[in-house]
Amino acid sequence: MPREFKRSDRVADAMQRSLANFIRTEIGDPRVGMVNINSVVVTRDLAIAKVYVTVVGAESDAEAEASVAILNKAAGYLRTLVSKDLTLRATPKILFYYDATAIRGQVLSSLIDRAVAEDLSHHSEENNSEEG
């Protein structure tokens, strides 16, 4: 009977929980702000962990990229903390990437909501003019 989940997926899930905790509690740099970890992708050989993050409250992409740069500078420290938290033979090297998909999703959702609202108001205006 084959396994349902690959080892790299289980390691990625554990690293996501561990990193979320350590970024919140151990990274004291106020420039980082509040970070959401959208996903962690670990290579099959468990050598590299790509961590995709969104920075909550970032005014611009440049500000979010600056926070990600700070996280990448602290990646070695975070890797040490994760290795102590998880029992792995070798802890993957951590690379942080800014993930703007959640923000793009919110923008698209608001555009769709606005279009639907305009369409509804346009239909109600047509119905009122036909009745009168």
Q: In words, what does this structure look like?
A:
The chain has two domains: 7-99, K homology (KH) domain (GMP Synthetase, Chain A, domain 3), CATH 3.30.300; 101-132. It has four helices and three strands; from the N terminus they run αββααβα. α1 crosses α3. A three-stranded mixed β-sheet has the order 1-2-3, covered by helices on one side. The model has no long low-confidence stretch (mean pLDDT 86). The chain has helices at 7-26, 61-73, 75-85, 101-131; strands at 34-42, 48-56, 93-98. The chain is an alpha+beta fold. The protein starts with 6 loop residues before the first helix and ends with a helix. The chain is 57% helix and 18% strand.
Short description:
With 132 residues, this protein is of the alpha+beta class. It folds into two domains: 7-99, GMP Synthetase, Chain A, domain 3, CATH 3.30.300; 101-132.
Instruction: Report, as a whole number of angstroms, the end-to-end distance.
Output: 71 Å
Could you say how many structural domains there are in total? 2
Give start-end ranges of low-pLDDT stretches.
none
> What is the general shape?
elongated
